[in-house]
Write a structure and sequence with these properties.
This protein is α/β, with parallel strands linked by helices and 338 residues long. The protein is built from seven helices and 19 strands. Bound molecules: NADPH dihydro-nicotinamide-adenine-dinucleotide phosphate (NDP). NADPH dihydro-nicotinamide-adenine-dinucleotide phosphate binds next to helix 5. The site of NADPH dihydro-nicotinamide-adenine-dinucleotide phosphate has 17 residues, from helix 5.
């Protein structure tokens, strides 16, 4: 399979939609996304004189801004809060001259070169290199009730919304590290926290399992699935199915005030899918051992291309790789001509 798409002619005029595009700007390196991957790519690109422009996207600072303590990022022996770490990364990227901007990439055209990215549907960035660091977003179960009670008892962020459940009973869906982290955070506020886990075991790391199991007000409901939520305007309870598909299957009515999702994430790759190869879930495919995508000049780093590790430190690592590869690509292509 030919992994690389042919590039358009250099110097080709961008074909922006004149009616909507109000402004066009040419940049050497465009970074989309502001999590650990995006900011690390920015630090490296700025130090390599790539004059990076970084658009922060829908969730400035990325997923770590809605987490509590980060205890596993090297260099912070006492741990650090997610938002504080992201602020540090942002300052470090700014220190070397990264142009950090508000704005969301709303469309791309990677059929031509230079590469085209539309920001907020009105500004066209024409870029020599693009680093995609758009991360991933929380997944939902797909129940109608999740939409019905969004903001009225259903949440995917305990740190953001936990405060509203002081002294109340809540449930967290999921058995991974995120679910344990959310449950532990909520246990400090709520009266009781149920973990709704579909398997007979937790997938989380041993240390997190140990913590939830030793927290008196957390109860783990193994082999339970959520069928529905109910309540008059706000969540008042969940209907669960215990031991689904077995002879002991039974329906359980769980009285709760809050329902928190922690069942993993979906990569934010929608706008790229017409041009960039992704896997069945939507994670961007990169050439093994690199951050190169199937489009020349486009690199992907962080959670949008990582379905395995998904750690802040691995995101930062791939951010550095993307910046180095983008700089080498640019140097080979333009060093003689610009
Ligand atoms: P994971 O993919 O690790 O876990 C998702 C959990 O949700 C699993 O228990 C899974 O069940 C369950 N789940 C998925 N879909 C459904 C569904 N439809 N219905 C019910 N349950 C469902 O995601 P996490 O977000 O927890 O973690 C992602 C990565 O981030 C991991 O590598 C993790 O280690 C890391 N992480 C590390 C932290 C730390 O070290 N402090 C904190 C948070 C995350 P099943 O097991 O049955 O598939």
């Amino acid at each position: 399979m030919d992994l690389f798409k042919p590039m358009g002619d250099l110097g080709e005029e961008p074909q922006e939609k004149k009616s909507e595009i109000k402004e066009t700007e040419h940049v050497k390196c465009l970074i989309i996304g502001s999590g650990p991957a995006g900011y690390t790519a920015a630090i490296y690109s700025a130090r390599a004189n790539m004059d990076p422009v970084l658009y922060q996207g829908m969730e400035p600072g990325g997923q770590l801004t809605i987490t509590t303590d980060v205890e596993n990022f090297p260099g912070y022996p006492e741990g650090v809060s997610g938002p504080a770490m992201m602020e540090d990364l942002k300052k470090q990227a700014e220190r070397f001259g990264t142009d950090i901007r508000w704005g969301v990439a709303t469309a791309v055209n990677f059929d031509k070169y230079p590469l085209e990215v539309t920001i907020d549907e009105k500004k066209l960035i024409v870029a020599d290199t693009v680093i995609i660091a758009t991360g991933a977003s929380a997944k939902y179960l797909g129940l109608e009730a999740e939409k019905k009670y969004a903001g009225s008892g259903v949440s995917a962020c305990a740190t953001c919304d936990g405060f509203f459940y002081k002294g109340k009973d809540v449930a967290v869906v999921g058995g991974g590290d995120t679910a344990c982290e959310e449950a532990l955070y909520l246990a400090g506020l709520a009266r009781k926290v149920y973990m709704i886990v579909r398997k007979p075991y937790l997938r989380a790391s041993k240390i997190m399992q140990h913590r939830v199991m030793n927290t008196p007000n957390i109860e783990i409901l193994f082999e339970h699935n959520t069928k529905d939520l109910y309540g008059d305007g706000v969540v008042e309870g969940a209907i669960l199915i215990k031991k689904k598909g077995t002879p002991e299957e039974e329906e359980v009515d769980l009285k709760i005030d809050g329902f928190f999702l922690a069942i993993g994430h979906q990569p934010n790759s929608d706008i790229f899918q017409e041009y960039i190869e992704t896997d069945d879930i939507g994670y961007i495919k990169t050439v093994p051992g690199t951050t190169r995508t199937n489009v020349e000049g486009v690199f992907a780093c962080g959670d949008v291309q990582d379905r395995v590790y998904r750690q802040a430190v691995t995101a930062a690592g791939t951010g550095a790789m993307a910046a180095i590869e983008a700089e080498r690509f640019w140097a080979e292509k333009f060093a003689q001509t610009k």
